[in-house]
Amino acid sequence: MNAVLKIEHLNKFFGSRQILKDISLEMFSGEVYGFLGPNGAGKTTTIKIAVGMLSLDEGNINIGGFDMHKNFEAAMANIGGIVENPEFYKYLSGLDNLRQYARMRTGVTEARIREVVHLVGLDKRINDKVGKYSLGMRQRLGVAQAILHHPKVLILDEPTNGLDPAGIKELRDILKNLAHEEDVGVLVSSHLMSEMELMCDRVGVIVNGVLIDEKPIAELISAAAPDKFDYVYWVSEPEAMIEKLDFITKENIVNNGNGTVDIILSKDDGLATLSKINKLIIDNGIELYTVTPKQNKKLEDVFIELTNTAGGGQIA
Prior knowledge:
By secondary structure, the chain is of the alpha/beta class. Helices cover 34% and strands 28% of the residues. The strands form three sheets. The chain has a six-stranded mixed beta sheet with strand order 6-7-8-3-9-10, with helices on both faces. The protein is elongated and about 75 Å long.
């Protein structure tokens, strides 16, 4: 994969206060990159610099192979973005809004306009006035506008704000399709951890203006996984089951009193121990209904741990 967005040693000051501190990250074509952080951590400032809305004080940004310092216009031609809510002419149709925007870009044909309308699922409503659009439809139109000129990078700042669950899922599917099928590098800033876990291939976590971690989603969660795993057994005779488990430390067995028993195993115990427990239960005539692992850590748990360890979310 090619790095379509490369930020190196980015620093930003507002007066004497340093907002961004040596931020470096790479985003590749064909991936959804989640840019995560508490409110006030520096996400929007980084994004505004990347899309040309703010100047950088120190560092460098390369977009689609073009250095922002040396060739600003070419770099901006390779990026599309929505910072906060997209704005449109409400008295015009969605199609006419796209046509107006297309006039500011070179090479955007009517066929391309129709193509992006289909990509974001607005075929049936594109001729309606934007004033009649729901928030979710306006977000779709915003994405269509942002990708009209075939950018290599799409950046969205809190794109799911105000959307209902159905709208969030629809937008998630659109962005994943753009990345995985259209080979666009998509950077999404958000504080909705559950949504980022479903949407993103890789994430970077920023706290107090510092990028404190950057990993694939699965690797980040795995790195913070516990050393022990908790399994819930639902059986016909919990007390009889517990009596037979003399090879497991009693502190690692909990009778929940509702027909279920928690058994805590270390990573080293492995599947062989689970198999041994199951066989013992069945061999002793105890009915085994289910064995369920308790929920492992989610991105939200890891995010809270990282941000708390790094000293909270607000810039001092």
